[in-house]
């Protein structure tokens, strides 16, 4: 039988199996090799919600999706072309993600009577036969048997041998997509440097998987995906949470301001605290607090002491911090609050994504409590946005809320390493100590500069002793003031100070399309990938549609109103019930249309394209 | 043990006086409030510490006591209800060079901020906590607090409070506090002495101060502070000294197994040699001492102790953090940002 070699522009593969099957490792190895082959790509892990669900059940299925191509790739892909399943539960949980006529690579050893029952298939069901009947191409491999066969001479116990099953499967996939094995071989040698026999076993399983695919002619087609036209530079793969860690380290190094992170573990934000706890030699101190309130309280205390105080959490944790954010607004100290959003309210869907904390970020505090709000659009974007959030907090003496979400926190994409020299300087408003002689004028802790920013007078500075607090303060001395006009003035000043940040952020750019026309799509946060794909695709189909994607949510870039007014229609797709759309309608009095889904998952490009097409039709 | 602490290695301000630590703000507590005495005694202590005013920070939450920072001519923060320990923790971890004080009340520290005070105590940051206990909510004008005795009639307990109160010092030692002490506003000399000890202790110092709220809970501590009664109701602790109380120290406390009992030294049956000798470093004895918490206006009840119950030297949290930071620099050198950003695996597009 001859094998046809086919060129593909883009491919999506989904790996699925039991938590113990090494799915995430298989996925990340395929990702590295794909990146080294020059493809553009985007990935997303799909962890089970339970920590250790019973083996073989649907609840215990772990997944990893990679979308790669010879063109620009913006999302991990809606539906996959190839579904790799290690057992029956994996098939049951993931068949819905496979395109019709797609390929299933199934480990048939995971489809025994017991596996079918654990996956809650009826006793008379034959899922593999059913899949074939439904038009899927099913490649059946007894991976367990083949791996044991491959490694029978290693002398390793069967349990250890079975742990190499994932490498056998990876070998098969490397053949199918014409990929070299060396990057994974190098990785295995590094990972198991202290256990060379395990490294050798895994390498053999990988090689034998590759050879098995050739020898058995189980595939009639083999694919190749050319390198994508990617901007020159050095790249690495990065998740959103890791990019935030690096962004904070960059702030500490570049600004020389000590960074203090007070945080309490919460899904999906904990990786930031974990990552920073190992970076003490970068000038970052971490404090795992007793609760969310203590976390932000400690950050405020550190900011008072002259550090940049930060706290990281998710929606329910941010709710607990709201009183302290109000305090920081009154104190006018730098503070960065990272909210890695998840589906809510309450505990909601902790491992699933949503963009439903924008109104909380805007308004979720007692009184008039203006803070700045920024959002990240992709895993790699988290680096630059984190840096910006810190810059604004320090230079404008204000709490800054940075919104990301579970999707970009855990998702990964290639990141072009930044030029360190190109990072903007960060200029703190520290005041120099002064000699407080008898006739010296008193220090005025709330005397503002042209941008309404007050000085940062830290303990230890002679002559600058002062008291601040949550009570309303006199507009210059900072002493307690119950004067009605003073409260009105201070309330306005705090808001104006936030609004004046607009003079220090870039103008909004058109991301895709023209600066006027029929339909403008406006996005923010993690929907960027799907919006970009949907707008690019529909423009190729000839529709008059453009895209802007907002990073600065409060204040908005100054030219935003003009852009919005230059289109016949404006569409705001969000993973919530319509939050940015409300704010834009309120601020610009335009008939803005919302498109909303809250399923804990990103938009599919298809549903966005349908909506765009519908809106361009009339 | 060194009894002198210096900040930044500077020991100055020999010329400063108590009044130099008073801010220009008008003090606004009710006339006759116990807080005035405490403020005066704290301001008296300040010049003795030899710490420059700019290196001292008073942090407070919400409540009558929490206005304290406004009246000190040092750095200060009036925070939010119950959260002063969290603010002070972040400040002290990031600025171990500062002398950090937390001023709090029974509602602030033991009710809304209960979670933070116990964690501060177990971590043992070098922070001085002054707990003004008046067994009532004063700022909100007279509701029962977590230290109000059962049966106290207040605005929210017209038939008497049914809440079982906290014993603050048992809570503190239970939370593994390293310095546990009690004093009262009506005995300024003892208050001054205990403030000095509070400041001298390296680690979290927890000083409970019985403070009279003249408006909403007047004379709550009368049995201990009233000169006519306190001989028989109060026990003044001195390290390495026997537990003596009563007029002319006629009574003592001895251990009957592990049960403290009152003995009459004039009975001829007992001498000072039979008594419980106070040992500030003995944690088990301190446990027992904090539990002397009866309503001792009743005859035959054990007196209530004042003084230092427990003082233990152990590393402070911020010191352990600083040690790890130093070790990290020693091990890895100054962090290299370029290496960090590059990570373990990269590829180059040409």
Short description:
Chain A has 618 residues and is α/β, with parallel strands linked by helices. Helix content of chain A is 37%, strand content 21%.
Task: Give a description of the structure.
The complex is a heterodimer of chains A (618) and B (350). Chain A is of the alpha/beta class. Chain A has three domains: 4-224, 3-Layer(aba) Sandwich (Pyruvate-ferredoxin Oxidoreductase, domain 3); 236-422, Rossmann fold; 517-617, Rossmann fold (3-Layer(aba) Sandwich), CATH 3.40.50. Chain A has 21 helices and 22 strands. Chain A has a seven-stranded mixed sheet with strand order 11-10-12-13-15-14-20, with helices on both faces. In chain A, strands 3-4-2-5-6-7 form a six-stranded mixed sheet, sandwiched between helices. In chain A, strand 10 (259-263), helix 11 (270-276) and strand 11 (284-288) form a beta-alpha-beta unit. Chain A is globular. Chain B has 350 residues and is α/β, with parallel strands linked by helices. Chain B has a domain at 18-220 and 315-322: Thiamin diphosphate (ThDP)-binding fold, Pyr/PP domains (Rossmann fold). In chain B, 29% of the residues lie in helices and 18% in strands. Chain B has eleven helices and twelve strands. In chain B, the strands form two sheets. In chain B, strands 2-1-3-4-6-5-11-7 form an eight-stranded mixed sheet, sandwiched between helices. A three-stranded antiparallel sheet of chain B has the order 8-9-10. The interface between A and B is large, with 71 and 63 residues.
Furnish the topology, listing elements before pairings.
The complex is a heterodimer of chains A (618) and B (350).
Chain A: E1 4-7, E2 10-18, H1 23-36, E3 40-46, E4 61-69, E5 80-85, H2 88-94, E6 98-107, H3 113-118, H4 127-133, E7 137-141, H5 143-150, H6 158-162, H7 165-176, H8 182-191, H9 196-216, E8 221-224, E9 233-239, H10 240-255, E10 259-263, H11 270-276, E11 284-288, H12 292-304, E12 308-313, H13 315-331, E13 335-341, H14 358-363, E14 372-375, H15 381-396, E15 399-405, H16 406-410, E16 412-416, E17 467-469, H17 484-499, E18 517-524, H18 528-540, E19 545-550, E20 552-554, H19 560-565, E21 567-574, H20 580-588, E22 593-596, H21 605-617
Parallel strand pairs in A: 1-8, 2-5, 5-6, 6-7, 10-11, 10-12, 12-13, 13-15, 14-15, 18-19, 18-21, 21-22
Antiparallel strand pairs in A: 2-4, 3-4, 9-16, 14-20
Helix pairs in contact in A: 1-7, 7-9, 8-9, 10-11, 10-15, 12-13, 18-21
Chain B: H1 35-49, E1 56-60, E2 75-78, H2 84-94, E3 99-105, H3 106-112, H4 114-123, E4 127-133, H5 168-174, E5 179-184, H6 188-200, E6 205-210, H7 222-225, H8 230-233, E7 234-236, E8 244-245, E9 251-256, E10 259-264, H9 283-290, E11 304-311, H10 317-332, H11 337-342, E12 347-349
Parallel strand pairs in B: 1-2, 1-3, 3-4, 4-6, 5-6, 7-11
Antiparallel strand pairs in B: 5-11, 8-9, 9-10
Helix pairs in contact in B: 1-6, 3-4, 5-9
């Amino acid at each position: 039988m001859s094998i046809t070699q086919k060129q593909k522009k883009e491919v999506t593969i989904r790996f699925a199996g039991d938590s113990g099957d090494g799915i995430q490792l298989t996925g990340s190895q395929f990702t590295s090799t794909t990146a080294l082959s020059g493809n553009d790509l985007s990935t997303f892990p799909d962890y089970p919600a339970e920590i250790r669900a019973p083996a073989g059940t649907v609840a215990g299925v772990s997944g990893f999706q990679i979308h790669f191509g010879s063109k620009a790739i913006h999302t991990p892909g809606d539906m996959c072309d190839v579904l790799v399943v290690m057992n029956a539960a994996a098939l049951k949980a993931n068949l819905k993600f496979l395109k019709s006529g797609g390929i299933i690579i199934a480990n048939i050893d995971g489809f025994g009577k017991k596996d079918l029952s654990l996956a809650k298939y009826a006793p008379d069901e034959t899922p593999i036969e059913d899949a074939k009947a439904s038009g899927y191409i099913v490649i059946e491999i007894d991976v367990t048997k083949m791996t044991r066969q491959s490694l029978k001479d290693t002398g390793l116990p069967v349990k250890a041998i079975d742990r190499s099953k994932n490498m056998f499967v990876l070998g098969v996939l490397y053949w199918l997509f014409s990929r070299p094995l060396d990057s994974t071989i190098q990785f295995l040698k590094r990972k198991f440097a202290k256990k060379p026999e395990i490294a050798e076993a895994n390498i053999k399983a990988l090689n034998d998987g590759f050879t098995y695919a050739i020898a058995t002619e189980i595939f009639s087609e083999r694919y190749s995906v050319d390198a994508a036209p990617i901007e020159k530079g050095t790249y690495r793969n990065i998740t959103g949470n890791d990019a935030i860690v690096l962004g904070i380290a960059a702030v500490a190094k570049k600004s020389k301001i000590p960074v203090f992170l007070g945080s309490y573990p919460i899904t999906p934000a904990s990786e930031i605290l974990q990552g920073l706890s190992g970076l003490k030699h970068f000038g970052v101190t971490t404090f795992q607090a007793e609760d969310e309130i203590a976390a932000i309280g400690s950050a405020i205390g550190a900011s008072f002491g002259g550090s940049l105080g930060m706290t990281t959490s998710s929606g329910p944790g941010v709710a607990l911090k709201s009183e302290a954010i109000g305090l920081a607004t009154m104190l006018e100290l730098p503070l960065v609050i990272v909210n890695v959003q998840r589906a809510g309210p309450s505990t909601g869907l902790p491992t699933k994504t949503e963009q439903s904390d924008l109104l909380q970020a805007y308004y979720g505090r007692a009184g008039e409590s203006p803070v700045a709000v920024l959002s990240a659009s992709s895993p790699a974007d988290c680096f630059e946005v984190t840096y910006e959030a810190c810059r604004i907090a320090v230079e404008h003496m204000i709490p800054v809320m940075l919104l990301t979400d579970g999707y970009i926190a855990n998702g990964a994409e290639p990141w072009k390493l930044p030029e360190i020299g190109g990072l903007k300087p960060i200029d703190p408003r520290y005041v120099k100590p002064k000699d407080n002689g008898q006739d010296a004028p008193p220090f005025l802790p709330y005397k503002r500069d042209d941008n309404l920013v007050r000085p940062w007078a830290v303990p230890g500075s002679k002559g600058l002793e002062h008291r601040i607090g949550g009570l309303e303060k006199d507009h210059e001395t900072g002493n307690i003031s119950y004067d009605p006009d003073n409260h009105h003035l201070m309330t306005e000043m705090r808001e104006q100070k936030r609004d004046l940040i607009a003079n220090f952020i870039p103008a909004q750019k058109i991301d895709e399309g023209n600066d006027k026309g029929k339909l403008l799509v406006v996005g923010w946060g993690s929907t960027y990938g799907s919006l970009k794909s949907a707008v690019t695709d529909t423009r190729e189909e000839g529709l008059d549609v453009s895209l802007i994607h907002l990073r600065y949510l409060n204040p908005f870039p100054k030219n935003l109103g003009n852009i919005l007014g230059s289109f016949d229609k404006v569409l705001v797709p969000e993973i919530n019930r319509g939050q940015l759309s409300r704010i834009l309608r309120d601020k610009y009095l335009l008939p803005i249309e919302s498109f909303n889904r809250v399923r804990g998952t990103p938009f599919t490009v298809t549903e966005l394209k349908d909506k765009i097409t519908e809106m361009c039709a009339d | 043990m060194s009894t002198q602490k210096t900040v930044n290695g500077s020991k100055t301000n020999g010329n400063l006086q108590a009044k130099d630590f008073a801010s220009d703000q008008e003090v606004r507590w009710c006339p006759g409030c116990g807080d005035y005495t405490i403020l005066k005694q704290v301001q008296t202590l300040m010049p003795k510490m030899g710490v420059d005013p700019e290196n001292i920070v008073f942090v407070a939450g919400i409540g009558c006591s929490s206005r304290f920072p406004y009246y000190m001519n040092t750095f200060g923060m009036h925070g939010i209800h119950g959260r002063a320990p969290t603010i002070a923790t972040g400040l002290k971890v990031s600025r171990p060079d500062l002398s950090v004080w937390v001023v709090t009340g029974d509602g602030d520290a033991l009710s809304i901020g209960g979670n933070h005070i116990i964690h501060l105590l177990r971590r043992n940051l070098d922070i001085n906590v002054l707990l003004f206990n008046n067994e009532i909510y004063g700022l909100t004008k007279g509701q029962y607090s977590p230290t109000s005795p059962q049966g106290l009639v207040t605005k929210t307990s017209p038939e008497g409070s049914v809440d079982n109160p906290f014993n603050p010092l048992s809570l503190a030692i239970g939370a593994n506090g390293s310095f546990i002490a009690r004093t009262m506003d009506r005995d300024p000399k003892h208050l001054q002495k205990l403030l000095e000890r509070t400041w001298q202790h390296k680690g979290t110092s927890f000083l409970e101060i019985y403070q009279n709220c003249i408006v909403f809970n007047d004379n709550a501590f009368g049995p201990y502070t009233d000169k006519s009664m306190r001989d028989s109701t109060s026990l003044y602790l001195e390290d390495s000294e026997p537990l003596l109380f009563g007029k002319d120290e006629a009574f003592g406390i001895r251990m009957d197994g592990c049960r403290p009992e009152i003995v009459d030294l004039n009975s001829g049956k007992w001498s000072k040699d039979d008594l419980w000798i106070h040992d500030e470093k003995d944690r088990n004895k301190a446990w027992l001492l904090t539990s002397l918490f009866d309503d001792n206006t009743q005859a035959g009840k054990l007196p209530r102790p004042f003084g230092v119950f427990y003082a233990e030297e152990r590393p402070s949290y911020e010191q352990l953090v600083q040690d790890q930071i130093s070790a990290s620099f020693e091990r890895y050198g100054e962090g290299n940002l370029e290496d960090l950003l590059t990570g373990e695996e990269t590829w180059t597009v040409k």
